[in-house]
Specification:
544 residues; mainly alpha; Serine Threonine Protein Phosphatase 5, Tetratricopeptide repeat; 31 helices; elongated; stress response; STI1 domain-containing protein; STI1/HOP_DP; Hsp90 protein binding
């Protein structure tokens, strides 16, 4: 498959279609690398299938889509891709009766090299309608009969067959008057009379070709005018220019993305979203560059963020940014995604704020704590803090109870010592450790409990909560003071102290900062990896 992509890329390059050549060289390689790095990601197979369809390797594309559906059977995009690939494969395998005997000369990338090398056909390769005509014949040789009335196709056929084909202009020049010296003017006139009879006129095709080129050129001028007026903040005029460009040429989605950018500046966010959706849809039909589709999706996400009024409103924006990143990983898009996720979380906390409910939850936690029902108490204390995180009374009341947590920890450990299979012992111990913000230790406790009771929901919820807190620290989503407190607590842990004093681990940590390649080699050691994970969980090391 890689060799085929290379061949098609070379042909596109020879024909002067440089953007297409780059896509051939990179699209398949990127898709194959994605699948290799993350074989359980269904979207990777969707990318691979799309690349293979673009290379007309339809059977391989069908196989790629099916592998993706094995992972995610209900993925609608993969289903649609599979259907299209199967239809294309059926068309490719079908040999219609009466197919053209010249069809085989249109096979292989050398076709484009021949047409480029011959002066009589070289200029045709700059004409989009001629290129599409050749591609149609490549897909179905029987289409050749449809295009034989086009003088350009006849000329191309002559080049590919290595025979001289005389054009209508050459035929007219090929019968000069000097060949008839003995004829009188009258007989000369009568002799030439048949030549003046109407013949099939290729002019309409030439007019159509010239008209399309003219319209595309005018569309580009309109786009440039739109760009100029946009820079001058004359947004209404810019919109007019981009709209005119679209009317002239609907095969360039940059007219849509540029108009969407103007709507974004004008605060017409709904119009921006509509243009971005249309650009993505049209771009997929035209198999436009992934970067252009990613740009449209990013712009849509930006507009949706502007429209967001509740935390739930951020969800479609986040989804749009995520889709853009699957098309093309761009640092600006990634930053916009992180900002949107952070804004959503902040708004969720604001929406959740309720001082009265916070007081009620704290009182429930106090009662349960007195009954030594520590996991239940922890849940109510946590809810109280979520409902009113900045109230000193809440912080003070909860922290007062935390002073007794070491006692609860000892009780839970005693339960486990008496009966190592007692699930409640692990949930209580993990809850106390979690509330003391010893998330790495709580995670270990919950995981140990799951060895004895793998389906216990309390233990599973505990693992999820610990992982969320650890990941928050890794992403830098906790305050500097909280991170400093967590690190200080971890530094008092003898196990952490032993890891940090280990000369080998000291070298590993130095390599992570100064020699990434050596650091990667260290990670091949399970023992080193386990210690690194311990430091990450404790907040000592952050992975970016």
């Amino acid at each position: 498959m890689a060799e085929e992509a290379k061949a098609k890329g070379n042909a596109a390059f020879s024909a002067g279609r440089f953007d297409e050549a780059v896509r051939h060289f990179t699209a398949l390689a990127d898709a194959e690398k994605t699948v290799e790095l993350k074989p359980d990601w269904p979207k990777g197979y969707g990318r691979l299938g799309a690349a293979l369809v673009g290379l007309e390797s339809f059977d391989d594309a069908v196989s790629a889509y099916r592998k993706g559906l094995e992972i995610e059977p209900h993925n609608e995009a993969l289903k649609a891709g599979l259907s299209d690939a199967q239809a294309a494969a059926a068309r490719a395998h079908r040999a219609p009766p009466g197919s053209s005997p010249f069809g085989n000369i249109f096979e292989g990338p050398e076709l484009w090299a021949k047409l480029t090398a011959d002066p009589s056909t070289r200029s045709y390769l700059q004409q989009p309608d001629f290129v599409r005509m050749i591609q149609e014949v490549q897909r179905n040789p029987n289409n050749l009969n449809t295009y034989l009335s086009d003088q350009r196709m006849m000329q191309a056929l002559g080049v590919l067959l290595n025979v001289k084909v005389r054009t209508s202009e050459e035929m007219e020049k090929g019968a000069p008057e000097a060949e008839l010296p003995n004829k009188s003017p009258k007989s000369e006139s009568s002799q030439r009379a048949p030549e003046s009879q109407p013949e099939p006129d290729p002019a309409p095709m030439e007019v159509e070709k010239d008209d399309e080129g003219r319209r595309k050129a005018e569309a580009q001028k309109e786009k440039e005018a739109g760009n100029s007026t946009y820079k001058k903040k004359d947004f209404d005029t810019a919109i007019q220019h981009y709209t005119k460009a679209l009317e002239l040429d609907d095969e360039d989605i940059s007219f849509l993305t540029n108009r969407a950018a103007v709507y974004l500046e004008m605060g017409k966010y709904e119009e921006c979203v509509k243009d971005c959706d249309r650009a993505v849809e049209r771009g997929r039909e035209l198999r436009s560059d992934f970067k252009m589709i990613a740009k449209a999706l990013t712009r849509k996400g930006t507009a949706l963020v502007k429209l967001a009024k509740t935390s739930k409103d951020y969800e479609p924006a986040i989804e749009s940014f995520q889709k853009a990143l699957t098309e093309h990983r761009n640092p600006d898009t990634l930053k916009k995604l992180n900002d949107a996720e952070r804004a959503k979380k902040d708004l969720e906390q604001l929406e959740y704020y309720d001082p009265n409910l916070a007081d009620e939850e704290r009182e429930k936690g106090n009662e349960l704590f007195k009954q030594q029902k520590y996991p239940e108490a922890v849940r109510h204390y946590t809810e109280a803090l979520r409902r009113n995180p900045h109230d000193p009374k809440q912080q003070g009341g909860v922290l007062h109870e935390v002073g007794a947590l070491p006692e609860g920890l000892k009780d839970a450990e005693k339960c486990i010592e008496l009966d190592p299979s007692f699930s409640k012992g692990y949930t209580r111990k993990g809850a106390v450790q979690f509330f003391m913000k010893e998330y790495d230790k709580a995670l270990e406790t919950y995981q140990e409990g799951l060895k004895h009771d793998p389906s216990n929901q309390e233990l599973l919820d505990g693992v999820r909560r610990c992982v969320e807190q650890i990941n928050k620290a890794n992403r830098g989503e906790i305050s500097p003071d909280e991170l400093k407190t967590r690190q200080a607590k971890a530094m008092q842990d003898p196990e952490i102290q032993n890891i940090l004093s280990d000369p080998i681990m000291q070298q590993v940590l130095v390599d992570f900062q100064e020699n990434p390649r050596a650091a990667q080699e260290h990670l091949n050691s399970p023992q080193v990896m386990q210690k690194i994970q311990k430091l990450v969980s404790a907040g000592i090391v952050q992975m970016r």
